[in-house]
Amino acid sequence: MTSRLPIRILAMCFVASLMLSSCGTDSKDKASGSATPSKTYTWKLVTSWAPKFPVLGEGAEKFAQWVDSASAGRLRIKVYGAGELVPGLEVFNAVSAGTAEMGHSASYYWVGKVPSAALFASFPFGLNAQQFNAWYYGGGGKDLWEEAYAPHNVMPLLCGNTGVQMGGWFNKEIKSVADLKGLKMRIPGWGGKVITKAGGSSVTLAAPEIYTSLERGVIDATEWIGPYHDYKLGLHKVAKYYYYPGWHEPGTAFELLVNKKAFESLPSDLQEIVRTAAARANIWVLSEFEAQNNTYLQKLINEEKVQLKEFPKDVLVELKKLAKEVAEEETAKDAQAKKTYESLMAFKKNILEWNKKSEDAMRPYLE
Ligand code: CA
Fold it and tell me: What separation in Å is there between the alpha carbon of 166 and the centre of ligand 1?
């Protein structure tokens, strides 16, 4: 009996090793599809951000590093700042054409090309980051986004969010809607259309032009992002009042754009690594915004003595009414945009009920 035991153990090990190696071969074959598993890929990732731009440029770099280390160097991605390979607003076209295999940007820049793209970043009084994540991962948002970009040979992956932005910097107080009349504000997209409906005018300026335009009175007010980036741009030096909340961008989502054909050419394990790293970057970017905004709001209040002001309720109620008009006018022009808007609004209506019984109900007791 004792002499036969080692033979039985050896036999079991042999069978087990056959099973393991056979499992290994199967999974390798499955993972590789038609592609060669050992092939190394070198890709380009173009962004709409200045090189190393805080949080967003950093997030794109981290994504590339995570893919590199998870794939043991089989998928290497070089990140380019705006203008280094293509201009920031050419990212979608570059990925679509395959000039770059990947891009990191915000969908609302492509509204001229894909009308529903206005809805996959942020829109006035839309969804906050948590609601948008829930819509994307669990409420049908992912499919609608993919459907919108598929004709352009682009696959989107949710990849970051600013959280609620700030309302912006003003040199006069906004006490009523009448104070918006004649106001010239740097506020792009649908937010700008709302300001125009309220009697003001909106302009779109890139980041480097904002400070001097406000300093010289070319514009009366501006929004940018939140305490961290606004502080870095020095906007507290050229405006008296810092208003909240950022009604026009309640949570701006970012996208990782992938050339669809290039993605489909990857072995499936590398495809999963890309999806997983994008999801990690999604939570990293939002968390970094939250952590830094928290620190820099304190700096603005305590060190720079910035005057923080909340928009009066009747101003926000009126802006919300005008925002609904803008959204309905804009989405009426395109069936995909209308379908996406209806999906978002239906999802929000329901999740607000849940939020009232969960997040909102807890809020007073968290303070
Ligand atoms: Ca903004």
Answer: 8
Same fold: 41-161+251-290 with 168-247+305-333? yes
- pLDDT tens column, 97-117: 999 999 999 999 999 999 999
The predicted pLDDT at position 312 comes to 98
Q: What CATH number does the domain located at 41-161+251-290 have?
A: 3.40.190.170
Q: What is the pLDDT of residues 179-216, one digit of tens each?
A: 999 999 999 999 999 999 999 999 999 888 999 999 99
- CA dihedral defined by 68, 71, 76, 77, rounded to 10 degrees? -60
Nearest Cα neighbor of 174 from 304, 301, 314 is: 314
Distance 119 CA to ligand 1 centre (A): 15
Q: What are the residue boundaries of the structural domains of the chain, listed by start?
A: 41-161+251-290, 168-247+305-333
CA of 223 to the centre of ligand 1 (A): 6
- The correct CATH number of 168-247+305-333 out of 3.40.50.300, 2.50.20.20, 3.40.190.10, 2.40.30.10 is 3.40.190.10
pLDDT tens-digit profile of 242-288? 999 999 999 999 999 999 999 999 999 999 999 999 999 999 999 99
Q: How far, in Å, from the CA of 32 to the mean position of ligand 1?
A: 42
